[in-house]
Amino acid sequence: MPDLAPVRIIPLGGLGEIGMNCMVVESGKSRILVDCGLMFPNAEQALGVEVITPDFSYLQKAGRLDAVLLTHGHEDHVGALPYLLREFPQTPVYGTRFTLAVVKEKLAEHGIGASFNEVVPHRRAEVGEHLEFEPLQVPHSIPDAVGYALSTDAGLVVHTGDFKIDWSPVDGKLLDVRRFAELGEQGVACLLSDSTNAEREGTTPSEREVGESLVRICAGVRGRIVMAMFASNVHRVQSALRAAVAQNRKVVTLGRSMETNVRLALDLGYLQFPPDLFVDPEAAAHFPPRDLLILCTGAQGEPRSALARLALGEHPTVQLEPGDLVILSSSVIPGNERALANLIDHLVRRGCQVLSATSSAQLLHTSGHACQGEQRMMIDLIRPRTFVPIHGEYRMLAAHARLAEQAGARPLVAEDGDAVELRANEAASLRTQAVSVGRRYLDARGALADVGEVALRDRQLLAETGMLVCLCVLDHKSGEVVRGPELLGKGVAGLDESRLSRARQLSLEALAELSPAQRTDHGLVEEALRRGVRSAWSKSLEKRPMVMPVVIEM
Ligand SMILES: [Zn+2]
Q1: How far is the CA of 74 from the centre of ligand 1 (A)?
Q2: 540 pLDDT above the threshold of 70
Q3: Which helix (H) or strand (E) holds 523?
């Protein structure tokens, strides 16, 4: 038997952070990506970054990509696809019905086409010569989520995608326990499993319990009911519709992403409800408050969301008033607490009662991710030779690895850019920093405008210190100063006339130290001006501004 190259599993994103999940799997001559997600910025947002995607340079260098397999339609799993397909336009994209519906909508917004291939649990398919895959049904907070069993040169690799083990899912689609167990029986070389909730003991409550809780909360409310949630959680939307039907209320959807997701789910027949349940927002004003349930996004305090407009009284046809109940059916993503608190203030100011996961003892939300109890069960079902925790920040990966060790598996903790190498019937090995990885900071959705790390650092510096432009005109023969230096500051602290004249003086002195020959060298002149101006700010006490010298020769 010829010596086969090892199968390589290389995360480009999602291992060491929450978001931008993106995993390369290479077997023989076949190379695929599992998921291609983006990440929303936190601190970088203030610097004009709207979207962060993985850097695909490794794939560019490798020069070939046979397929992208998608596990589900969340942004952190599919959001970077438009950017990938611009670089690899012909790559076939595989996903389940709902996932592809979400992706087609997104790609159409970007004006990008792709070759789509619908997958169905249990149905195996081939990619390239050395890879076969089989989708595995898993419950998650979006319909049609799957994991994948990959048949590689080194044996079976199981990727769970995002999952929880919900024994009473709203759509009735259970984790395919039997198939996972069968794979375990066959022998799995490597299990890659979702670590998001690896720090949480116990199990994640069922989505159905949240639905029942929402129905109970809505009973007896006299005013309007507003439910804010992630638009892609169609299970939760279904529960909200049940609550509306139980109370004889009509449903209004507000916000583009909620309207889109409800439309997709309706088209695919993924929502059950009686006829005439939905009414247009324009018609909402004709119904008494007691007859309305409003479904919207904005539970994270997003400033441009439908809920934010309601809170500020800026919606043209729906005005909230005392007696209305607002339910935030979602957890708060770290970093959004302040924005959400401001939003709740506005709602309370309008006289609304607000229920949120942090303030209410009732079950308003449940995670879509497995806690330790379910993670342990997955490991016990699969009993892999090697275990690699995926999807999470480092401490979550480490916690999941500890859990696997207790279960008798051999864990390897990999981060973005590391390569897990597998050979048939051998222990896996880890090559750290095997490929160079990074992030792309994009400043507008749709446009591929990579801000770059250097530009981001400059923006950070500008925000902290402001900027001074130092303009100086020199004689091109003698190098003598003809005019200037003139200083123009923006956002600089302590910029009064005495400081400005001192900065001018010090920059002239720095220029005077240069010989006539040196003064014909632009680089040296700029450096002298920068040094001179900056020394007008004492080194120890104050932040020195960024100085941009502009030298003109006459
Ligand atoms: Zn997800």
Answers
A1: 5
A2: no
A3: helix 522-534
